[in-house]
Amino acid sequence: MQEKMKQRAKELLADGTVNRVMGWKKGEFGYDTTPAVFRSAEEIDKYFVCDDFTNSNLSKLLVKESKKDGVILAFLKPCDTYSFNQLLKEHRIDREKVYIIGIPGGPKLDAEIIKSKGITGITGVKNVNYTLVIDTIYGEEKMPFYEAVSVKCKSCKSKKHVIYDELIGDDGDILESDRFDEVEKLENMTSRERFDFWQRELSKCIRCNACKNVCPACTCEKCVFDNPKSGIENKAVSDSFEEKLFHIIRAFHVAGRCTDCGECSRVCPQNIPLHLLNRKFIKDINSLYGEYQAGADLDTKNPLTDYSTDDCEPSIVHERGVE
Amino acid sequence: MQVNDSKNFEPVIAAFCCNWCSYAGADLSGTNRLSYPTNVKIIRVPCSCRVNPMFILRAFQRGADGVIICGCHPGDCHYTSGNYFTRRRITLLYSMLDFLGIERNRTRLEWVSAAEGAKFASVMEQFTEDVRKLGPNRRLEDLRCRKK
Ligand code: SF4
Ligand code: SF4
Ligand code: SF4
Ligand code: FES
User: Fold this and answer.
1) Are residues A195 and A316 in the same domain?
2) A192, A243, A244: best to mutate for the B interface, most B CBs within 10 A
3) Are residue A229 and residue A308 in the same domain, yes or no?
4) What mean pLDDT is predicted for residues A50-76?
5) Which ligand is closest to the CA of A258, given by its number?
6) Domains of chain B, earliest start first
7) Residue A121: which domain range?
8) How many residue pairs bridge chain A and chain B with CB atoms within 8 Å of each other?
9) Are A173 and A50 found together in one domain?
10) Residues whose CB is less than 8 angstroms from the CB of residue B131 and which lie 6 or more positions away in sequence, other chains included
11) Do A140 and A101 have their domain in common?
């Protein structure tokens, strides 16, 4: 796969279809691959990688890249194509400036999960028949591949590319996913239990902003949280109120636009399950206003900028009873 | 369930009222000498859809025990469709607050027209009572803003 991608990238660079290639390059440790732009065949040969750790969604980076001169080639996994479509819909990306090659999705691995099993000093990770053989400075360790699969891939919603210029490998299908199960579990708790759960989770937040910076739906030139007067731009002075404010507003701003790409939860250094907030909105939208998948196409109206005269009243929330 | 901090708890209610219907409705209830609880602090907004979710959270932060939004009846919005957007947005927001464990009865939305002075008074009466039962807002308060 990686070799095919490299070859195709070099061809497109050579024939002038594109003048830059966006993919991933190895970081310091091999498992911390990062998005990167390549300008020549030599760079591609030397640094380009696409492996079990290339989780990063490249779509958001194309907002800036598509403003530059010339066409850029981008490799997008199925979930990334939803984000790309959503950005197109919001007129954030110039479609003419991007050449998309769809590549098969994961399951991708999350190095944090491997580390959480007490495996440290990792120097390399190999997948041998779905057993991970992990080289560390202390010797070799093994663990089942599936255990290290990143949270977002565990509840993958689609293996289908919703936009591309060409594909490498086969296109997949939209999947039945269990992604709302955890949301439901919380819904079935008492209000007090939910409060305690979120208080516990959200108080871990260090306001690093990684969730918002990585999110393809958060592309505002100026974000509400950048305002130093908001009282929420840093953690040091904060009260637990601000944690809630930040998370409610962040999730609300992306409601109806969040494709559930899973990037926010993946990058959170505190492992806060942000996807549960996003999915709560998605679940509510689906059940109250009809099934909607952000980024699935370019025409369907966003449920929050649309309405129907017979929509339900907010009292539907209160009818759940008093707790 | 929250326990009342004091026996004589008087809730603070922030009421966002749209200028064209509900604010006029509040006015009418006044000119008709109908009384509604003094707990209610009215904040006038041009349209119910002006209410940014941030306003609601800020109201709780700064001491509100309950927040109610009032607007023109669906179909009657001065700006034609503003309140239809309000309806979706606020439904989702209230559901999210509930998901985070904030008591359901601290939030409400009611449609009150300029002619419904009596409805305005009874809505406020009812909502204030509901919030009084819940006690002070503790789950969405900012300690620094708490009055001694
Ligand atoms: S909120 Fe999270 S899951 Fe949704 S689009 Fe943003 S990064 Fe992706
Ligand atoms: S949190 Fe809101 S304002 Fe900030 S970038 Fe995201 S959508 Fe924009
Ligand atoms: S990434 Fe995690 S810790 Fe950082 S601001 Fe977001 S929720 Fe908080
Ligand atoms: S003007 Fe009253 S709700 Fe829009």
Assistant:
1) yes
2) A244
3) yes
4) 93
5) 1
6) 13-145 (3.40.50)
7) 111-148
8) 123
9) yes
10) B11, B13, B65, B66, B105, B106
11) no
Ligand 2: centre distance to CA A220 (Å): 6
Of A97, A64, A104, give the one whose Cα is nearest residue A81. Answer: A104
Rounded to an integer, what distance in angstroms lies between the CA atom of residue B65 and that of residue B57? 11
As for how many domains chain A has, the answer is 3
pLDDT digits (tens, 9 = 90+) for A154-199: 888 889 999 999 999 888 888 888 899 999 999 999 999 999 999 9
Distance of residue A61 Cα from the nearest chain B Cα, in angstroms? 28
Angle at which helix A274-289 crosses helix A240-253, to 10 degrees, equals: 50
A85-96 per-position pLDDT tens digit: 999 999 999 999
A17 close to A97: Cβ distance less than 8 angstroms: no
Reported as a single tens digit per residue, the pLDDT across A291-307 is 999 999 999 999 999 99
Q: pTM for the complete prediction?
A: 0.92
- What pLDDT, on the 0 to 100 scale, is given for residue B8? 81
- Confidence check: pLDDT of A237 > 70: no
For residue A155, what are its two tokens?
């509840």
Candidate from B74, B98, B105 with C-beta closest to A309: B74
A-chain residues near B98 (CB < 8 A): 191, 317, 320
Residues of B in contact with A292 (CB under 8 A): none
